[in-house]
Target: Coproporphyrinogen-III oxidase
Amino acid sequence: MSEQLNWDPELIQRYNRSGPRYTSYPTAVEFKVVENDQVEKDLLSQRNQDVPLSLYLHIPFCAHVCYYCGCNKIVTKDRSKSEPYLDLLKAEIDRKAELLQGHPIVEQMHWGGGTPTFLSDEQMTDLMDHLRKRFTFSTDDSADYSIEIDPREVRPNTLKLLREIGFNRTSFGVQDLNEKVQQAVNRIQPESMIRKVMTEARELGFRSINIDLIYGLPHQSQQTFAETLDVIIDMSPDRLSVFNYAHLPERFKPQRRIKEEDLPSPEEKLAILGNCITTLTKVGYHYVGMDHFAKPDDELSRAQGDKVLHRNFQGYTTHGDCDLIGFGVSSISQISDCYLQNSPDINVYEEAINSNHFPVVKIITTDKDDLIRRQVIMELLCHDQMIFSELDQAFSIDSRAYFTEELSQLSPMVEDALLEISNEGIHITEKGRLLVRNACMVFDTYLNANIIQSYSASADASSTTNRPRFSKAI
Model:
């Protein structure tokens, strides 16, 4: 795959519409309310025993509120609040594990949040011990056990402990190193702190280290973000996630503390991203897609080159063949061809566990059309192409006839040289890689149905208030 990205600000601005990030298809906004937990019990007990597992644990606690954050979290200085939650989490783990048949192997695990390292070293050790009593973890070199880390929440022994209990990949939330920007978003962490945790993680042998950055934050400029990027490149993370800040204060209360007049203009924000992409590719990082960069020898880059990269709720992954089982408030599972989500409300979650039920509140079961479209979207996102013959063989269809209307709708992108359509399939060009979500949205029947519905709805407030909102592509 080419390392070149064709940067055309005018074209990008023209196509920069809101849309899903497609960590699933159908997306989470399409999940339907479920009345009871029997469907999840059936899915767990009847799943294919030979399919490996990926586990996700949501730890919602944060000691500090970051004003840009839209995650499901509980902000508290009281560390004792985590203990009752861990009891609930372990009860959920027990009940789900009991339903699994055979001895499925866990090939991937991720702890997210919130701030997982809000937990004490003793709590993290106990939680991992509990998981190992219920599941068999793969010892293969390809096994992927990762955790999100706030550098401010790293105690002297934390990283060493995480390696000892089995984590081999980590992600540090940095966002920006400029002090004025950090103050504006209430996340103060000096460069020396980031360097310290990065150095220690390397010395401890973490296989892959990711750093998260955000562009579009208050007081950022091309110059300040370039300075941050130079320092981060010098630290040499294996992966970089460079996310677009979506300012939605009506949805996320902490964002109301960010002054809109302090945000970079749309033109400046776009230039920040353009400079970032140019700089990272120039120094050798491979653009994986959807804000993600990796060194050429990283597993993500190799998987993309071998055409085995996948995408799910954990982002780009090399373990897309696993059933994903989520634990904790708001977590999402993917079992076979069904998606399920736990309640995002901690009180509802607690009540369900204490009542000996699963805390599932939403579900969607995919049909054949969903699966066909999911493969198209994931192939475009992961490999910048979709091959007609592969789709025909997988689903016994004539994909060119099946998608006659969609292929026609892609004509503007063809005319703008963002993609090519041949007898072989659809190929995203260098010019179109940053806008691949636009191509994916053409194949999203749910999104297009919502758009049609919004056009036909009355213009009063009730017709728009509950409509799902997405961040812009760039």
Notes: The domain at 24-327 is CATH 3.80.30.20 (pyruvate-formate lyase- activating enzyme). The chain has 18 helices and 21 strands.
